[in-house]
Amino acid sequence: KVKSGKRAITDYKTVATFNGASDLELCLHTGRTHQIRVHLADNGCPIIGDDTYGPHHFGNLPEPLRTICQKAARPMLHSFSLTICHPVSGKEMTFTAPLPDDYRELLGELG
Questions:
Q1: 89 in helix, strand or coil?
Q2: In sequence order, what are the residues at sequence separation of 6 or more whose Cβ sits closer than 8 angstroms to the Cβ of residue 74?
Q3: pLDDT at position 91
Q4: pLDDT tens per residue, range 29-66
Q5: Exposed, middle or buried: residue 37 (CB in 10 Å: 0-12, 13-18, 19+)?
Q6: How far is it, in rounded angstroms, from Cα 90 to Cα 111?
Q7: What values do phi and psi take at 93, rounded to 5?
């Protein structure tokens, strides 16, 4: 498909698969607004809990996956690692954060 807008590049790999859902690791090469959410929804893989880009996809999901998706209080996105170059020193800096409790609980319900 050709769409208007700026170029956006997202690479991904599948970490785990469940009945109708997947846990993905994504790498953004550009930083567009809603980039991950738009790319995944456009490919028929909306993010669980995404009330903007996901609802029209969730109705087609089998139970109990539909119920799990509908009760998510937020988009199930988590930046576990972020690497930037310091604006002054130019030194590469990496920050990490563990999965939040709600994300871990969701993975437990799916798995």
A1: coil
A2: 49, 102
A3: 98
A4: 998 999 999 999 888 888 998 888 887 767 777 788 88
A5: middle
A6: 42
A7: -125, 135
